[in-house]
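Input.
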Amino acid sequence: MFIILSGSSGAGKNTVINELQRNNENFVLMPTYTTREKREGEVEGKPYFYIEKEVFQDKIKNSEFIEHEFIHNNYYGSSYLIFDDYIRKGNILIKDIGVEGAQNLSKKLADRTKIIKVFLTVKKGELKNRLIGRGEKQIKLRLGRYNYEQKQLNKFDYIIYNEDLLETTALINSLINLENKDFYSKKDLSKLSKYKVKYYANKLTAGKNLSPIKIVVKDNKAYIVSGVEKLMASIITNIPVAKLIVKKDIKVEKYKYQFEN
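Output.
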């Protein structure tokens, strides 16, 4: 399995990855080649291999990367060799990657293993505070990219507001095993609006992104707060729709209708 973790710089991706690894040795962070400078305390290969720009460009020419991108004046790239090695070992591979790379990576590797794309987000004011707190020198540059990144979140499988570390990691652990049968609705599925289901299905097959389905995740089950017809259209077309995980008190007993795989 491969978990792609994306979101704005400062959204807490690396902290979440570290916590997941701390509690489950089967989680392996996929190392990435980069041309940026090594930060204080960072170790070669965890998570980056630091190389010169000329070396990186040679690797591009030799088709060694699954994907590569240029962000904040530096190159980042994922290696086929590294990916295949960990998948063969049966690990849960996880990677922090930019929004463009996330889409490219999932398309290229979808036939090799199950992939879950998770977008971590925070409010812009909170993001700025986090960047200041970690001594970031390119705050203006990174905040300038925030609005663009937020427009891409509908392309991910799940969207999580990363406000609490333990809560976020617990959610990701739940998402690993979620299947269609683990989604529940208040609405009788046989009585859904056929017009809405067809409308959403047509948009998906035309390559359009739908606004997220809102869900509550509890006890490794997903309860649909809104967007039941979107999920049905997604199942019919086998095209994923983003699911925004919300915090809301719900009465589980009211969610009587279970989806089928």
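The longest strand covers residues 65-71.
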